[in-house]
Amino acid sequence: MANHKSAEKRNRQSQDRRIRNRINRTRMRNAIKAVDAAIVEGSQETAQELLMKAVPVIAKTASKGTIHKKNASRKVSRLTKRVNKMQVVA
């Protein structure tokens, strides 16, 4: 446990950041899961719609510093690739 006033403040700040990061990460993961579910279902229009909603969520998560910007870019790229591949196959 923290003994100094500054260490106690740092502990409070890190707890707040942890909670905020968890919320952002969960929101991002749920958006990605929704796109994945639409891909598995085989619904092209739904997958495209959900992708357009997921991309800003992923970008926002990166801009808040929860994930690295290259990690976000990779996630968007791979999701887009799967959705586009689905359109070519059908």
From TrEMBL:
Residues 1-24 are annotated as: Disordered. Residues 1-18 have a biased composition (Basic and acidic residues). GO terms for molecular function: small ribosomal subunit rRNA binding; structural constituent of ribosome. It comes from the Bacteria. Coiled coil: none annotated. GO terms for cellular component: cytosol; small ribosomal subunit. GO terms for biological process: translation. Pfam families: Ribosomal_S20p (PF01649). Keywords: Ribonucleoprotein, Ribosomal protein, RNA-binding, rRNA-binding. Belongs to the bacterial ribosomal protein bS20 family. Binds directly to 16S ribosomal RNA. This is Small ribosomal subunit protein bS20. It comes from Desulfocapsa sulfexigens (strain DSM 10523 / SB164P1).
